[in-house]
Every structure is written in C-alpha cells, then in structure tokens.
Amino acid sequence: MEVEEEFKIHTYLKADLAHLYNPNMPVVSAMRKLRRWIRRNEDLYDKMYESKEGKNDHTYTRRQVQLIVTYLGPP
Q1: Angle at 51 between CA 58 and CA 18, to 5 degrees
Q2: 13 C-beta neighbours (distance < 10 Å), count
Q3: pLDDT (tens digit per residue) in 11-54
C-alpha cells in the first residue's frame, strides 16, 4: 500500500511546483498549464499578485503556494 505524503507549504521554484501538479508532462508544458489554471481563476490570479510578488519571479512565495493549494487543491 502506497502512503501519500502531506504536501508541504513553502517557497517553490515555479518549475518545481508546476511539475508536482503535472508530473507526466515536460517541465515547460507543466509550467504553461499551471499558469493557465491560475490565469483562468480570476480570484486566485488577483490575490496572487496583489502583494509585492511579481509575475516574472522564478519562485512562488509561501503565501502564493498557500493560495494555489486553497484554490486548486494540493498537487
């Protein structure tokens, strides 16, 4: 029986988090898909970028990861 680990909320490289959500896709495609999910959810998108974090950063902050998990569920 496989035991599922609890997802940890912390800062992630965008590529790493995208790959957790889409493990069977190449990293670039996984990142594109995660960005699309975020953009299509207006509430999530607005909350993700209402603070000092930028869209062009290479990481998602702990706060942003928590928002993603709240809106999309854990990977």
Answers
A1: 35
A2: 14
A3: 999 999 999 999 999 999 999 999 999 999 999 999 999 888 88
> Is residue 3 in some structural domain?
no
Kindly write down the DSSP assignment for every residue of 26-73, as one continuous string.
Answer: -HHHHHHHHHHHHHH-HHHHHHHTSSS--TT-SEE-HHHHHHHHHHH-
DSSP conformational letter for 3:
P
Count: domains in the chain: 1
Q: For residue 53, is it within any domain?
A: yes
**What is the gyration radius of the CA atoms in the chain, in angstroms?**
12
> What burial class does residue 38 get, using C-beta atoms within 10 Å of its C-beta: 0-12 exposed, 13-18 middle, 19+ buried?
buried
Q: What is the pTM of this model?
A: 0.89
